[in-house]
């Protein structure tokens, strides 16, 4: 049973759940992946914590993990990129596999060695090099927005959390196109609020975007349907 450590934010968690359902080959209810969800919206702000300006979210994430274990989860997904800055600490706390969102994204990339991948995410995700380190191991370089553009990305993420989707979409489309114009072959939507905003983006741009939420959902389906496969990429 898939345990979802969610609530970061709630809308992104619902989007993730829908993508698990959509990516599950199923002819009836019983074919779907059983899920238990802890939408722990009380978890302190991850970005504030990483800036040294807020409470440590690890204790609250640990509590949510314990609830998922008690409910019978057999593997865990965290549909929040920035929360993966605590992935190692959380994995240390449990024998259950916590799927890593960046590893899931790498399975979705069609880029070739030497290509440049754009990353749109929170400032903490970008400055913490959550994607850069793992992509580098695959021979891929990374490009992230400059300081002013990163401020715009953060504004858009806050707008999504406040339910102002259309305004966020306008900002994020500009930022994604800027990375493509700068030479990126693909752009990772590396914050789970971003795919919510760009769900209806026009097809030409969509083909260049990689949805981290969807990538994690597909990895979860693989892990739950064929446990021995784990995070192995689909052929």
From TrEMBL:
<dbReference type="InterPro" id="IPR004380">
    <property type="entry name" value="Asp_race"/>
</dbReference>
<keyword id="KW-0413">Isomerase</keyword>
<comment type="similarity">
    <text>Belongs to the aspartate/glutamate racemases family.</text>
</comment>
<protein>
    <submittedName>
        <fullName>Aspartate racemase</fullName>
    </submittedName>
</protein>
<dbReference type="GO" id="GO:0047661">
    <property type="term" value="F:amino-acid racemase activity"/>
</dbReference>
<dbReference type="Pfam" id="PF01177">
    <property type="entry name" value="Asp_Glu_race"/>
</dbReference>
<dbReference type="InterPro" id="IPR001920">
    <property type="entry name" value="Asp/Glu_race"/>
</dbReference>
<dbReference type="InterPro" id="IPR015942">
    <property type="entry name" value="Asp/Glu/hydantoin_racemase"/>
</dbReference>
């Amino acid at each position: 049973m898939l345990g979802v450590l969610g609530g970061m934010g709630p809308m992104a968690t619902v989007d993730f759940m829908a993508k698990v359902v959509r990516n599950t080959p199923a002819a009836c209810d019983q074919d779907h992946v059983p899920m238990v969800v802890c939408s722990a919206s009380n978890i302190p702000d991850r970005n504030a914590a990483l800036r040294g300006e807020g409470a440590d979210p690890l204790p609250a994430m640990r509590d949510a993990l314990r609830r998922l274990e008690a409910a019978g989860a057999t593997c865990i997904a965290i549909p929040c990129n920035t929360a993966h800055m605590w992935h190692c600490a959380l994995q240390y706390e449990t024998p259950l596999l916590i799927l890593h969102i960046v590893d899931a994204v790498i399975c979705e990339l069609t880029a070739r060695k030497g290509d440049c991948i754009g990353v749109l995410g929170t400032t903490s995700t970008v400055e913490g090099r959550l994607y850069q380190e793992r992509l580098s191991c695959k021979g891929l370089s990374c490009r992230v927005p400059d300081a002013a553009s990163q401020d715009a990305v953060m504004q858009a993420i806050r707008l999504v959390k406040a339910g102002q989707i259309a305004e966020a979409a306008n900002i994020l489309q500009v930022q994604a196109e800027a990375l493509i114009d700068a030479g990126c072959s693909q752009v990772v939507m590396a914050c789970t609020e971003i795919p919510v905003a760009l769900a209806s983006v026009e097809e030409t741009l969509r083909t260049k975007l990689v949805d981290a939420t969807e990538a994690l959902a597909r990895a979860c389906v693989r892990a739950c349907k064929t446990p021995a496969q784990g995070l192995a990429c689909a052929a």
